[in-house]
Amino acid sequence: MSTNKEFDFKNYVRGRYFPHIWCPGCGHGIVLGALLRAVHELELDKNNIVMTSGIGCSSRISGYVDFHSLHTIHGRALAFATGVKLSRPNLKAIVPMGDGDALAIGGNHFIHAARRNIDITAIVMNNRIYGMTGGQFSPLSGTGKKATTAPYTTIDNNFDVVELAKAAGASFVARSTVFHASESKEYLKKAIMHKGFSVVEILSQCPTYYGRKNKEGDAATMMEGYRKNTVKIGSKKLDTNPDLIQRGIFVEDTDRPEYCEAYDEIIETAMKGKA
Amino acid sequence: MGKGKSVTHVIDKEWCKGCGICVHFCPKKVLELDRRGKVEAVRPEDCIGEKCMLCELRCPDLAIQIKENQEGEND
Amino acid sequence: MTNTSNIRFIQGNEACVEGALYAGINFFAGYPITPSTEIAEHLAQRLPAIGGKFIQMEDEIASMAAIIGASLTGSKVMTATSGPGFSLKQEALGYACMAEIPCVIANVQRGGPSTGNPTHVSQGDVNQARWGTHGDHSIVALTASNHQDVFKMTVEAFNIAETYRTPVVLLFDEVIGHMREKLEIPERGELPVVDRLRTSVPKGVDYHPYLPREDGRLPMSDFGAEHRYNVTGLFHDMWGFPNNDPQVVSDLLRHLVDKIENNWENICFYKEHWLDDADYVLISYGSSARSAKHIARNRRKRGMKIGVLELQTIWPFPTEIVREKCANAKAVMVVEMNMGQVVTQVKSAVDHPEKVFLANRIDGQLISPTDIKTTLRMIQGKGV
A239, C91, C311, C343: most buried by Cβ count inside 10 Å? Predict the structure, then answer.
């Protein structure tokens, strides 16, 4: 792989399965595009990438990429990926997840993967809804939102993925949106090259369910919303509107030991018979 | 085009689902949806190519790729 | 000739660890739970010393998931658990069935349901091993009544998992897991050790990870090697991509069941003790079989024609073997520590189910020879 070669999506996807299953205007395809571009620009060998996903709209991403791909069960992708990574630390582990997949059913695995600081890139494709099952609220919907299981609006508080990832020990944490596709790509590149557990939250629209239920308009209008409602970390606009969502790299800590490397030291000790 | 570059929009109409994101965000109004609801480049000569790339970057269907042609290539 | 350096006086759980190491395990993920924890503890010590990997995960679900991921990269993998943890593993175990991932799951049984009777023995998970995960599928479950067999069955579990690309359950029980007795570790080469079949399809040639050969086997390609393919728990085509075409669905389901059921003769292990002329056949497994053998040995001394069929493979159920061994019996008694899980299978296997009886114990205590004797006397019409 070489950057001399012009980027072509078709060198990175399993074309026979396109067009993909996502609805028209779904942001997840933009995440896919940004990720493929990131892999291209990093000149990674496709044989060295394992993409592991769980269940949901987002998780179907793994079937489309021309990497080793592991489409698993709901919420457990990070646990499967932990097995892949610890068994073969030379492989790049990328784990795209939906918001429900990552933080409801998979919340425990998310915090423990972060705590271990294992070298996995977790991508939270946050569309604030369960799309595959038809529009139920997720732990990232926020309060006062409509969903098929919240016909009178939600009363649940949401998580802040960035704060959660930071608190749990992720050593790289970033957030962007599919409106900022180029920025997303840059964060993905950094996350993939980061040694340790990296989290990139990418806000991604679901016009079919979240948008329709909450009267947020079509896909393009929802993307305009990401432009209006987000700012770079520390922007002055926050002084007047603290509700704006911050984008950027929140944590980039290269000093913390990575799990597989730490385990290599255990092996060294054990082989000397010192246990 | 005066600088000797022209732009080709490589569009996969089978992959395009006609969401209209590219049409909405194109700063030069190069793109429109055709009668089948699929994207097409109706004013490719207005495209600013690599300076922009918004349609390609934001296409959720991986259905558009911008190719900048070298001088003379597209004659 | 005995090499005493190969002799250990250890717990059954340690015998399982020795068997796993002999079979070539190099990845274990687990979560502490009584009465299986010693398996994790010993592998935490032993695996890194041979360059292998041990990881304590956040729960049993994650442990099951991690071994599947590791197996796909080419490792020989195992997890170990007990009742509640075995319940948690079921969804991922079904995934391993569907995606055909070699892996071994040791379940050292304790009393259930629920938290149940953690430090006491039971054999109540026999049916859970068979049907714990949802949907049609086949499963392999092996057991053992002594440490030499724990070792051997653990090696067989890895061999079967790698041969048929399937999860294999080791259904031990608390008594076997915690009891200490002698284990003589076989020399290298004494027991066969099977490595998985890997594809010979060269780089650049389309590899079909889910297109079975004529013999039903699927040569694998490790993640990280030249062939990039998809693995999914959805019904899938020969490239591993999701597909719900009715023909694809039915073909795959039949394949998943047939690859086990059609090979039952290669998978079904058992031992027989004094069965040649037996009027009374005791069928048992695990620690219960020790008591069954004890009573049979004693009654033989008094001239009673009694023998024991000891099952080492419970699933696929050795129906043909049970029918054959019970054909001439006046009565068959299944000895087990549950409300009658194997006895149901035996009744449906034999020609005269009315001659099949159950001697069981369900109070967390090992079934004793006296318990079996009591039931035997009832069958013989001698009163208790």
Answer: C311
Q: Is residue C257 part of a domain?
A: no
Q: What is the pLDDT of residues A156-205, one digit of tens each?
A: 999 999 999 999 999 999 999 999 999 999 999 999 999 999 999 999 99
Give the tens place of pLDDT for each residue, A59-116.
Answer: 999 999 999 999 999 999 999 999 999 999 999 999 999 999 999 999 999 999 999 9
Q: Where are the alpha helices (DSSP H) in B9-72?
A: 21-25, 54-58
The DSSP element (H or E) to which B65 belongs, if any, is strand B64-69
Q: Look up the CATH number of the domain holding residue C350.
A: 3.40.50.920
Candidates C27, C56, C61: best to mutate against A (most CBs of A within 10 A) is: C61
**Residue in the block written with tokens 């800590």:** A253
Domain boundary among C146, C166, C184: C184
Q: Do residues C172 and C284 both lie within one domain?
A: no
Contact call for B17 and A24, based on CB within 8 A:
yes
Cβ under 8 Å to A: B residues 40-59:
53, 56-59
Q: Which domains does chain A have, with CATH numbers?
A: 9-271 (3.40.50.970)
The dihedrals phi and psi of B50, each to the nearest 5 degrees, come to: -65, -15
Indicate the residue among C184, C208, C240 that finishes a domain. Answer: C184
Interface of A with B in 111-130 (CB under 8 A): none
For residues C168 and C55, membership in a common domain is answered with yes
Chains in contact with chain B (at least 3 beta-carbon pairs closer than 8 A): A
Q: At what angle do helices C147-164 and C12-23 cross, to 10 degrees?
A: 40
Has residue C280 been placed in a domain? yes
Q: Does A179 contact chain B (CB < 8 Å)?
A: yes
Give the distance from residue A14's alpha carbon to the nearest chain C alpha carbon, in angstroms: 10
pLDDT per residue over C197-214, tens digit each?
Answer: 999 999 999 999 999 998
Per-residue pLDDT tens digits for C332-380: 999 999 999 999 999 999 999 999 999 999 999 999 999 999 999 999 8
Q: Is this prediction's ipTM beyond 0.85?
A: yes
> Which residues of chain C have a CB within 8 Å of the CB of A112?
57-58, 62
- Whose tokens are 């429109």? That residue is B32
Q: Residue C233 in contact with residue C101, Cβ under 8 Å? A: no
- Which tokens hold the place of C285? 């497994």
* pLDDT of A275 strictly over 80: no
- Say whether residue A62 is in contact with chain C using an 8 A CB cutoff: yes
What residue has token string 């590899």? C207
**Element at A201 (helix H, strand E):** strand A198-203
Domains of chain B by start residue, with CATH: 6-66 (3.30.70.20)
User: Are chains C and A in touch, 3+ Cβ pairs below 8 Å?
Assistant: yes
Q: Which two tokens stand for residue A240?
A: 């007047």
Confidence band (pLDDT; 50, 70, 90) for B6?
confident
Q: Which domain holds residue C295?
A: 271-379
Domains contained in chain C, number: 2
Asked whether the beta carbons of residue C95 and residue A73 sit closer than 8 angstroms, the reply is yes
In a domain, C298, yes or no: yes
